[in-house]
Amino acid sequence: MILTYLPEHAESARTALDLAERESAHLGYTCNTLYAEAIDLAWVKALAEREDLAEKIDAFVARFGRLQDHIGEKLLPAFAILLGEQPKSLLDVLGYAERMGWVEDAEAFIGARKPRNLLVHEYMSESELFHAALIAAKPATEMLFRIVAATRAEATMRGVLTQMREKPRPNDLVAKQPLGEAVEFGRGWIARTP
Question: Domain range for residue 174?
Fold first, then answer.
């Protein structure tokens, strides 16, 4: 018999994937409702007076942050351990995940913290910066969904999911809407609006 994974670590990998998919579904819903809005500078400036819009942003930022943290702290390490790796740091985990094809670009994953942090802190003071971060957060969100989908594909290929129920794929949860061109700067994302 040829082992394709370490069975004693399968349950923790399945659990981490299950939670990541649940978080992805919630983030997908919030992302769809948020980006269904016509997000421009006037919309951003209205956040100070519109509790409903501010609440939408808060839900998006919280869910984005939870998913990104879960991927980096639980999902990717669980899958690395499942395959016999013993990563010691987030950079080790991301490097391994990049080599495995689960993460397209480790620097982009780390850079996705930039719009997340700006969304938490800037909407009350710098509307233009907040708007750019909001536009940049959508492709970063889609990147997170692709990571979850890639780990699911890995688990499926290796036969790890025999006890897990089928779920919607996170990539299918976000409507594809053009929002302007997102470009990477330094180690973060920023958007150039049309």
Answer: 7-192
